[in-house]
Amino acid sequence: MRYLFFALPLILLVGLVAIFATSIDRDSSLVRSVLIDRPAPEFSLAPVEGLATPGFAAADLRGEPTLVNVFASWCIPCRDEHPLLEALKAETGIRMFGINHSDAPENAVAFLAELGNPYDAVGADRDRRVSIDWGVYGVPETFLVDADGVIVYKHVGPLTPQAIESELLPALNGLKS
């Protein structure tokens, strides 16, 4: 009994080291959403006040594949990601909708005026309710929705050229087949 008392902390330590060792190289951006392969949540977002781009609703996601990007003007990674979104739009022509997350309208307008507006529609999610329904952890996050309004892909964090090439474009090409 005495040896067990002294061995227990060592056994627990070895167990924790084993858990950490097997988890150390996992990609934290690979967060599987419970919404994958399910219809996008029902919502309706008004346009960002002062922006000439319309808002959108769940029904607008049907008809053709759509990239939905959750962004905010105060988000530094969103600023870094933005040129990639513009290049993706130019390269693929994909319909792109933006959910402006918890942002003052004048800041969102200035952000898009400065960096360009690749979005066909931008909805104002000032109270973050729609973002919560989409399972957004933080900004930026990007979703690919098929022509039936079903979420087929989610990327947490800013898109990178590697993520676009190895994940997003294959997912998009899979929809066009």
Describe the structure.
32% of the residues are buried. The model has no long low-confidence stretch (mean pLDDT 90). The strands form two sheets. Strands 1-8-7-4-5-6 form a six-stranded mixed sheet. Strands 2-3 form a two-stranded antiparallel sheet. The radius of gyration is 20 Å and the shape is elongated. The chain has a single domain, classed as Glutaredoxin, CATH 3.40.30.10. It has 177 residues and is of the alpha/beta class. The longest helix is centred in the first third of the chain and has 22 residues, at 2-23. The protein has helices at 2-23, 76-92, 105-115, 129-133, 161-176, and strands spanning 38-39, 44-45, 56-57, 66-71, 95-101, 121-125, 141-145, 150-156. It contains five helices and eight strands, in the order αββββαβαβαββα. Strand 5, helix 3 and strand 6 form a beta-alpha-beta unit.
Task: Provide a quick synopsis of the model.
The chain is α/β, with parallel strands linked by helices and 177 residues long. It has helices at 2-23, 76-92, 105-115, 129-133, 161-176, and strands at 38-39, 44-45, 56-57, 66-71, 95-101, 121-125, 141-145, 150-156. It is elongated and about 75 Å long.
